[in-house]
Amino acid sequence: MIAELGTLEQSRARYPDDEGYVERDGVRVFYEVYGDAPTTFLLFPPSPISHSRLWKAQIPYLSRHFRVVAFDPRGNGRSDRPTSAEAYGWWEFVADGRAVLEASGAQEALVGGLCDGGGWALMLAASDPAAVLGVAAIAPFVPRLTPSHPNYRLYPSDVPLDTDEGWAKCNVHHYRRDYQGFLEFFFSQQLPEPHSTKQIEDCVRWGLEGGAESLILADEEAPPPWASAEEARDICRRVRCPVLVIHGDLDNCQTRERATAVAELTGGTLVTLEGAGHLPQARHPVKVNGLFREFGESVAPPAPKVKTWTRALSRRRRALYVSSPIGLGHARRDVAIAKELRQLHPDLEIDWLAQHPVTTVLEAEGERIHPASALLANESGHIESESAEHDLHAFQAIRRMDEILVANFMLFLDVVREENYDLWIGDEAWEVDYFLHENPELKSAAYVWLTDFVGWLPMDDGGEHEEFLTTDYNAEMIEHIARFPRIRDRAVFVGNPDDVVPNSFGNGLPGIRDWTEQHYDFSGYVTGFEPVADREKLRDELGYRPGERVCIVTVGGSGVGGELLRRVIDAYPQAKALLPELRMIVVAGPRIDPGSLPQQDGLEIHAYVHELYRHLAACDLGVVQGGLTTAMELTANRRPFLYFPLRHHFEQSFHVHHRLERYGAGRRMDFETDGPAEIAAAIAEEIGREVDYAPVETDGAARAAALIAELL
Amino acid sequence: MSVAADVREQSRARYPDEEGYVERDGVRVFYEVYGDGEPTILLLPTWALIHSRHWKLQIPWLARHCRVVTFDGRGNGRSDRPHGAEAYTIREFAADTLAVMDATATERAVLVGVSCAALWGVVLAAEHPERVAGAAFIGSAVPLAPPLPERTVYPFDERLDTDDGWAKYNLHHWLTDYRNFLEFFIGKCFTEPHSTKPIEDAIGWAHETTPEVLADHDAGIDLPIGGDFRELCRRVRCPVLVMHGDEDALHSHARGVALAEATGGQLVTLEGSGHFPQARDPVMINLLLREFVERLP
Q: What is the pTM of this model?
């Protein structure tokens, strides 16, 4: 199932404020500390089959409300891998947790754990009650408390088997033969929810960091903490603090009986998650985060703070606009839509939950940026970290943004719970759309979804596996919409039906065009500006002299464009030789340092050009990436342009390309094959060419706003 | 605006499981008990203008989650109407509360009160911490911030040559045209538009007592309590929730702010709300009360 496992850790939504090691009997255990709230929340790791990243969907959120301390188990992550079985005894992990707590400077803490870690959390509470305020345990493993899960009783785990089918993989000899094969099987069982590919990949990757021997020592060879069910019950009974037990009814590791017994013996509360497996913190992070916070605050109530509740009829009309920060493109169209919306509802107040570089546009427009925006995890930085030379695997980059998406959804949720908004607008706000469909009970305002493309599409070189993944993502989205049509009160496609690609969502799924026409309203394209009426006058204003042939080279707001800029700069001398009247202006944009680009005689390089769209409207040729916004600005102004879709960028390669074909706009170039000579020749051929593009409508913002305004 | 006071009580959503009287110095006070959950919420009486039915929108729901005890303050409802200011002091109301708690075997309760109920509520929380698990106050009539200026223009006891506005808050006007006073005063309680029904309710309850009782109660509240009220507030150790409408036309929002500050409590500002939000915005008040009760240590 897993095609390739990159070794590089994906961007985190939140990095630790402090980190360090504790050492016990020569074994070093690595820990991290996040936030500085008064109450500490210690997160036990699972067994060495995984490590502290298992909590990645919890840490960013919890650290805004608690001080979070997480650590890697001995045997995985950045902790040591001792080689004796004794070093993996259960009380050793408990003592590690205690030592980490102390090293972090906390006297007492709420303690969370999953599976083995849930057992360790309970053991700490039983053995050191003064240190534990409360225990939140997901699928806690308390050995011998109840019979183990039937899956583990199918095959012996320590003798060679003549099969490695299914649960026979849970065997020491198989671990040593094919640990990855075991991990892939095991975690697909522990994440039985459909559409869990990313969570399974994560778990397999983390498991491989530990390796088979750690797991064998911990699971098979370490001395058991106690010998009888009675001793296990006794440990539970000795827990006096409040206890929350969370258990998925499809758990393939810990039984419902065991979870029930833990709750009963500790006097705790059992929350059953129906349809959930063994790892709900990964697959149902929003629910688990809410349960953890609610539990933590019931045990250690936060300091009172002044609150306001406003009577319904005293409320101002308010909207929260969540604008995707990936590229600058959405900012201008969202501002245009917001302006039109205020025309229709003059009393409407709009707050923006947005981050750089969108905020640069919003600030310039005097829009109100919600202060919580400062807490958003950085999406642009993540996208840049995922890119290589003119290469961005957009689909995988979005998948590998899962932690950031959860964190930013949780922030959105905190904001809309504190304040009353009548309407939420998400322009490709993937986190809002996805997690509202995953947690439909959280919808408490009208909600509008905007996008300019529909459908994840595999790249040709991604093979069957990528096709499987995009199909799976599309299938989940289609199921979401079919099951919860009430979530999107409006779905607005920024474009026209003909702009929708003719592809299929994947094997067994509908065609994208048909489905989109059934499930979306179409606003037409939204440029965010008026088309230029008098181009000669504009050229004059911008300082372009008659007879000059102006070529503007830009990669928009993206930081993933330095290579293209360099390639075009290299083409400049040849182009200039072919076309002496050429004036080339390179715009580095807000996320590329112009000093990092090579200089050529006669070439102009700028960091930033105010109202770049006006220059694009006035130029004789644009040279751009394959992003929709810039290409459409050129199309709307009927300028010739060369565009270079990023490698592995499905949206630029398919969706944008399809749309530009429809307009008859632009000349598609190929970064693989087009070198400086080809680029220079294309510049000379295209510059100043009269174009016959299909016209771009100018009422898109007004149409989008009219669709939205009905909800207010 | 004018409606005939309907003497027949309308159907209740929930009838008490138990009711009875306590008697102190010959004065009988009527109480009701609903439900049997934990903890007990004691819904306090307020000014004798109205009686325990002012909690009618809270009782049925709270009683499904907690045990609810409420009683008619002396001077209205099914309680006696003694004469003289001494019968209506803050301490008498506090003592009635303890007597009702004893009679209903309530060792400890969360106190909830509207308007001047905060006066006896604070006394109880400060002086009987073992019996008060928490206290929640709405539209608190506490002397921690100055009264609204318009309420200080006219004397209460003197005959006036006007009955304009707050001039109606005058003994002679009460005795001459009680109904006219009620329509003005209760109208001020509900600054929110579309409040006809809660206004009618309150006017009806107010007709179950007399202007003489209200005058005694006002005078009783003004008698010294043997200490500084602000000092008492500082002695409160239990969790405190203060809810106050920012359009409260009887007691300024500043009074709620000051009460929260003095007791170390949590302030919830109710934007657009008047003096009696428990009647006008019952859902939010119920949710705030339940959340407060559930978070008590």
A: 0.93
